[in-house]
Write a structure and sequence with these properties.
Strand order of the largest sheet: 3-2-1-4-5-7-6
Radius of gyration: 17 Å
Number of domains: 1
Structural class: alpha/beta
Shape: globular
CATH topology: Rossmann fold
Strand content: 15-25%
Oligomer: single chain
CATH architecture: 3-Layer(aba) Sandwich
CATH class: Alpha Beta
Distance between the termini: 40 Å
Length: 219
């Protein structure tokens, strides 16, 4: 079982890297903020944990690490490749969480762009509720450019990246065509405003490239 899980994990991560420019940089940015912001071991919740990639960096700075995903397959993969008494694995949706003031940091990498406006607002509010005072929330998401002209330039560039990294033109086209149909990006200003409206006292741009953005919120 562990060998199968490891294979699935590698395949999954390869596909993501073909799709998302600077995917590894997302995690490097997160851990850099964590090491700058916290002095002690922390309690960490990773929402939409996927195969558990955050564990590569997060377990070393944590005394509790909760992996949450609504996919049983992802939770099984994460559980089978992570061996730590700090780790907890939870099958469920972020919108069903009932944590209150439990975590120092919550991360969500490429999770919320599949949600409707109301679902996204609920998810961010749940994350804010689950954080302790002065806790931080870091999310990396797709974003929507402000104009149609810029949107086309960004999408063309993103398609070119995918082709240059091993996808066929047809595969890249299929992914680009999902924009606004299967996933629903919002603008960078909307990302920050949403965090503020959900109770974060500060929300700022952390990182941006292609059509992906990192946002940092402090409760």
């Amino acid at each position: 079982m562990k060998n199968t899980a490891a294979f699935q994990s590698r395949e999954y991560d390869i596909k993501i890297k073909q799709t998302l420019p600077y995917y590894e940089e997302f995690y490097d940015q997160i851990i850099d903020v964590v090491k700058c912001y916290f002095d002690n071991k922390i309690s960490w919740l990773d929402v939409g944990c996927g195969t558990g990639k955050m564990a590569e960096l997060g377990l070393e700075v944590s005394n509790r690490f909760v992996f949450l995903d609504n996919s049983a397959d992802m939770i099984d993969i994460a559980r089978n490749q992570i061996n730590s008494d700090k780790a907890e694995f939870v099958l469920g949706s972020v919108n069903d969480m009932d944590y209150e003031n439990e975590f120092d940091i919550i991360t969500a990498v490429q999770v919320f762009h599949y949600l409707s406006v109301d679902e996204r607002r609920t998810a961010i509010q749940k994350c804010c509720n689950a954080l302790r005072s002065n806790g931080i929330f870091i999310t990396f998401e797709n974003f929507a450019p402000d104009t149609a002209m810029m949107k086309q330039i960004y999408l063309d560039r993103w398609k070119r990246y995918q082709i240059n990294n091993g996808k066929s033109a047809e595969e890249a086209d299929r992914h680009i065509e999902r924009y606004g149909k299967d996933y629903f990006p919002i603008s960078i200003d909307e990302h920050k405003r949403l965090l503020n409206n959900c109770g974060f006292r500060s929300a700022e741009l952390l990182w941006c490239s292609y059509m992906q953005v990192g946002i940092l919120g402090i409760k």
